[in-house]
Amino acid sequence: MLRNGLEPWHLLLVGLVVILVFGSKKLPDTARALGKSMRILKSEAKAMKEEGAPAAPAEPPAPAD
């Protein structure tokens, strides 16, 4: 049924439907909001990854002479 998967004309059709549904005036605002959300998600995921990683072991103090 979907032997060839996603072809270029499928993407063109999806893009056309998106433009018809949302209108060309709202698309830049929607894309800007999506980009901002993706940046926030990426920074939060990075923070969670750093939080879950074990801290680097501290160096033992040098012996006093």
Automatic annotation (TrEMBL):
It comes from the Bacteria. Gene3D superfamilies: 1.20.5.3310. The gene is tatA. It is found in: Cell membrane. Keywords: Cell membrane, Membrane, Protein transport, Translocation, Transmembrane, Transmembrane helix, Transport. Part of the twin-arginine translocation (Tat) system that transports large folded proteins containing a characteristic twin-arginine motif in their signal peptide across membranes. TatA could form the protein-conducting channel of the Tat system. NCBIfam families: PRK00575.1, tatAE. The chain crosses the membrane at residues 6-23. Residues 45-65 are annotated as: Disordered. Belongs to the TatA/E family. InterPro entries: TatA/B/E, TatA/E. Its main location: membrane. This is Sec-independent protein translocase protein TatA. It is a single-pass membrane protein. The Tat system comprises two distinct complexes: a TatABC complex, containing multiple copies of TatA, TatB and TatC subunits, and a separate TatA complex, containing only TatA subunits. Substrates initially bind to the TatABC complex, which probably triggers association of the separate TatA complex to form the active translocon.
